[in-house]
Amino acid sequence: TQQTLTNIHDHEDALNAYVTVNDDEALAQAKQADESGIDADNVFSGVPVAYKDNLTTKGLLTTAASKILYNFKPVYDADVVTRLRAAGAVTIGKTNLDEFAMGGSTETSYFGTVHNPWDTTKVPGGSSGGSAATVAAGDVLAALGSDTGGSIRQPAAFNGIVGLKPTYGRVSRWGLIAFASSLDQIGPMTQNVTDAAAMMNVIAGSDERDATSSSKEVPDYVAGLSGDIKGLKIGVPKEFLGEGIDEGVRGQIKTAIKKLEALGATVDEVSLPHSTHGIQAYYILGPSEASSNLQRFDGIRYGYRTPNAKNLEELYVKTRSEGFGDEVKRRIMLGTFALSAGSFDAFFMKAAKIRTLIIEDFKKVFADYDVIVGPTAPTPAFGIGAETKDPMTMYMNDMLTVPANLAGLPAVSVPAGLVDGLPVGLQVIGRPFDESRVLNTAFAFE
Ligand code: GLN
């Protein structure tokens, strides 16, 4: 833990991966772990773990990378934090992210941009960019991220690490600062598939404090890693290798698919015809839920409060105007508009219908295929500042990741080589609660 703290501090100037490094308590937690030792219930004993700063940690600053929570110290731990602490993990720090996890480059953070350790002029992806960067830099073996439209998988791809978004309901969202509650899931970001499986063994499971949490039994994900994928039926959606996909990325993914075939899987082209409308549906539904979830940040209950208000109305308006950044305001406006009486049918309902069509597309393919594979992101990491001027360009980055969120499916990104010296991710999407097969496919491949 001491060495990890040193490494993190050595890298912070270059990476800015953390909002808070837990210098105060990490060593005491490590000492506790030394005293209790390691056993089967305590498999993370003394292992430093980094948490995305939208996961609450009792008494430890939790900001969601927003000015509006710049001084927020939660009174409880997120369920995932409680579980990992119970398994012996040391809370090493809280990682930087796009403000309220809204973004794909970690450039919307109130605490400044995160840099990609492969090339610090490039973004680390987002929104879990800090978690991805610190794992890729070799500081920690494991971090947690959250994924609403790709925020675990896309930064995992951009940093050459493994990132899993579990099935909706597999991991409790208790203590995750909500962005879009019907899409959000917490998941592991690690240096290899085995470690992702080990983390899932700890964080998955039911929690009565999250009404959408599943009570389905949790398998042993590590034991499920046989590495054998002979006879596995893989579908590759033609929409995932078509327009908008970088030539180099397409090449790497085709090579990856050949490797999966060589390992004994059968591969066919399939179609997810409505997935091409995923972005449009996501950027209505996500902001709609966000506009509702973010109402609670009013300057009364949490964090920042404007010093400039003369009455209650002004207190609300100025706190929110001063406390939220541009991207968050854009989403609140988009969502409020989509939910307003005059546009609810034309926007929200239409997006909800597209979501259903996307779910149906997946069901049809999964009737014949075990997993779906394709790229995680259409390009490798782009330059810092390159896409901040045009939100639409930034949103298009999520075209390959949002379908799994809209359908609630498990999906992993696993490293699949380099393009121009930058990592590319192979995405494996599975049936609901089929994390074991998804992880085993990635394990056989890596
Ligand atoms: N990049 C997507 C967005 O901006 C996804 C974010 C996420 O998964 N939290 O909404």
From TrEMBL:
Gene: gatA
Record-linked InterPro entries: Amidase, Amidase_CS, Amidase_dom, AS_sf, GatA
Membership in a protein family: Belongs to the amidase family. GatA subfamily.
Domain Amidase as annotated: residue spans: 1-439
Pfam families named in the record: Amidase
Enzyme Commission number(s): 6.3.5.7
PANTHER family: GLUTAMYL-TRNA(GLN) AMIDOTRANSFERASE SUBUNIT A, TRANSAMIDASE
Gene3D superfamilies: Amidase signature (AS) domain
Record protein name field: Glutamyl-tRNA(Gln) amidotransferase subunit A
Function, as annotated: Allows the formation of correctly charged Gln-tRNA(Gln) through the transamidation of misacylated Glu-tRNA(Gln) in organisms which lack glutaminyl-tRNA synthetase. The reaction takes place in the presence of glutamine and ATP through an activated gamma-phospho-Glu-tRNA(Gln).
Organism: Furfurilactobacillus milii
